[in-house]
Every structure is written in structure tokens, then in C-alpha cells.
Design goal:
This protein is of the alpha/beta class. Helix 1 links the parallel strand 1 and strand 2. Helix 1 packs across helix 9 and helix 1 packs antiparallel against helix 10. The longest helix is centred in the last third of the chain and has 17 residues. It is globular. The relative contact order is 0.13. The structure holds 2'-monophosphoadenosine-5'-diphosphate. 2'-monophosphoadenosine-5'-diphosphate binds next to helix 5.
């Protein structure tokens, strides 16, 4: 265990629930690997206490914090400056305290984009995104600049339509459709899609046998990416692998978003291999 002193710089994550967050082990391992005098802690912050916690970051001179559910959207008006992309997405997951000014960023979308680009080409591709919440929004925003067509399917059809409208109005490049998530829309859109992304929480521990996609709609050529990282291989990903498709785990996006936050706070290149290893080891322990 590293020594913590009066010089040690403070980072953390605020959210509710927060008990199962893997961000503390991941970031502390990264600080340790680079011999940086920082610590990273988790804080359970209730919705009504968000403002007080942001005042705390200022008052106690934290270097930075990650922001997670349910605060990613509500935190925006409490910050001093927003990265234009975070502002367009409408969600912040990383705050950097630079000389008393709180700067807001969103590293989820880039993290996901990096995870996908490592395994699949996006140019001229058709992508189906399941979900229309904060995570889907961050992802769709980046993907719309890179691919040809995005179909957003969501349980609440209105949310899919409104996200599609928002993206279309921004003229990012891709044609974007928003439809209710049902068997017929799934079947039709997946028949011509190149990439499928689950941006909902379906399949997450403890409901690890849940999936939104019947396996007959999957195919060997459909690259399948799940943002869920616990478990590292969801039911959707095992079904995709069983078809012979490329399956990309949410662990990649989680590590990438963390690495980008780390770089914003420290100005140093993140030790991503070490971060990935720690996360996978912790997830294995959780699944035992
Ligand atoms: P996040 O910021 O993590 O995306 P969110 O804004 O609460 O969280 O969004 C969660 C997403 O998962 C939504 O698209 C939600 O669908 P609704 O908009 O209809 O609520 C989707 N989701 C969650 N549970 C689901 C389920 N059992 N079946 C289908 N979609 C589900």
C-alpha cells in the first residue's frame, strides 16, 4: 500500500449506487504503476446532495472526479466550463478541477469508439444501437460522424425518435432512424446491419441470462458490442460468438473511458494494459 501524505492529490467517483464500482481499483492501480502521488475514492452521493458534493470538490481541492448514474446529466449546470462534445451529448462523466475552475468532459463516447475501432471498420457501415439513454447518446454522437446509417431501437419508442431527431438536426453525417424496440424492427434492421451495439443495462449482473436479441437474428458477419462490463461476456456476446461473430466486451469501453479521464487529470499516458488486467481480475472475483 502506498503512503498517503498531506501532498497526496485527490480523485474519486460520485454516484448512487457506487459500492460495486471498479473505478477505484482501476485508477489506484494506474497511479501506483506510474508512481503518482494520487488516490481515488468512491463516494455515494444521493441525488439531492449533488450540489454539496460539487462544492466539496472545490472546497477540498480535488483534482478530478468521475460522475456516474444518476448524476451525469444533472451535474452540467454546476460546472464552470463544458467540453463542446460533452455539451452536445448533454452528459458529463469526468470533471477536472483546474485552478478552481471545474471543467466537464464526456469520455464514454470516445471510449466506446476506440473499443469498436480496434476491432471493426466504421466507414460506410450500418449500425444498430439498442437503447436511447445517456450511454446510447454518447455513443451515437461519435458514431454518427463515422458511419453511414444508425438505427436506434428503444423500449420507449419516443426516446429513440427524439434521439434520432436530435442527431439528424446536428447533421453529423449518418442517416439516423429511431424506432420502438420490437421483434419486427430488430429482425428487419439486423438483416442489413454490420454492427450491433447494446447500450442498455440488459444482461448486467445479476440478470446475466437476459438479452434483448433472439440469437436467430445474430450472424457471423454482425460485429456485436455490449457496453455491459459485468459480466465481461454477456449472454448477447456469447450468443454472437457462438455464431462466429466478433464480440467486443464492455470492459474495453470501461477501461478506455477511465484511461481518458486519467489522462485529463494527470497529463500522462494511462497504463491501459495494467488497468484492463486489474478490472478483469476484479470481475472474475465478483463472478465466483
Ligand atoms: P444510461 O445513462 O446508462 O444509458 P438510462 O438513461 O437510464 O441509463 O438508459 C437506460 C437504457 O436502457 C434506456 O434506453 C432503457 O430503455 P427506456 O428508455 O425504455 O427506459 C434501456 N433499458 C433498461 N432496461 C431495459 C429493459 N429491461 N428492456 C429494454 N430496455 C431497457
Amino acid at each position: 500500500m502506498r503512503r498517503v501524505s498531506s501532498e497526496t492529490k485527490l480523485c474519486g467517483v460520485i454516484g448512487d449506487p457506487i459500492e460495486h464500482s471498479l473505478s477505484p481499483v482501476m485508477h489506484n492501480a494506474a497511479f501506483e504503476a506510474l508512481n503518482l502521488d494520487y488516490v481515488y475514492l468512491a463516494f455515494r452521493v444521493k441525488k439531492e446532495d449533488l450540489r454539496k458534493s460539487i462544492d466539496g470538490i472545490r472546497g477540498m481541492n480535488f483534482v478530478g472526479v468521475n460522475v456516474t448514474i444518476p448524476h451525469k446529466v444533472n451535474v452540467l449546470p454546476l460546472l464552470d466550463w463544458l467540453d463542446p462534445v460533452a455539451e452536445a451529448i448533454g452528459a458529463v462523466n469526468t470533471i477536472h478541477n483546474q485552478d478552481g475552475e471545474l471543467l466537464g468532459y464526456n469520455t464514454d463516447g470516445v471510449g466506446a469508439l476506440k473499443a469498436l475501432k480496434g476491432r471493426a471498420a466504421l466507414r460506410r457501415k450500418r449500425i444498430v444501437i439498442l437503447g436511447a439513454g445517456g450511454a446510447a447518446r454518447a455513443l451515437a454522437f461519435y458514431l454518427a460522424k463515422e458511419c453511414d446509417e444508425i438505427t436506434i431501437l428503444n423500449r420507449t419508442g419516443d426516446r429513440a425518435a427524439s434521439l434520432a431527431k436530435d442527431l439528424t438536426n446536428r447533421k453529423l453525417g449518418a442517416v439516423v432512424l429511431g424506432l420502438p424496440l420490437n421483434q419486427e424492427n430488430l429482425r428487419q434492421s439486423l438483416a442489413t446491419a454490420d454492427i450491433l451495439i447494446n447500450a442498455t443495462s440488459v444482461g448486467m449482473f445479476p440478470r446475466i441470462n437476459d438479452t434483448l436479441v433472439p440469437s436467430q437474428f445474430l450472424s457471423p458477419s454482425l460485429v456485436t458490442f455490449d457496453i455491459v462490463y459485468n459480466p465481461p461476456k454477456t449472454k448477447l456476446l456469447s450468443d454472437a460468438e457462438a455464431k462466429g461473430a466478433t464480440a467486443i466486451s464492455g470492459v474495453e469501453m470501461f477501461v478506455n473511458q477511465g484511461a481518458l479521464s486519467f489522462e485529463i487529470w494527470t497529463g500522462k499516458e494511462a497504463p491501459t494494459e495494467i488497468m484492463r488486467k486489474v478490472v478483469i481480475t476484479e470481475l472474475r472475483k465478483l463472478l465466483k
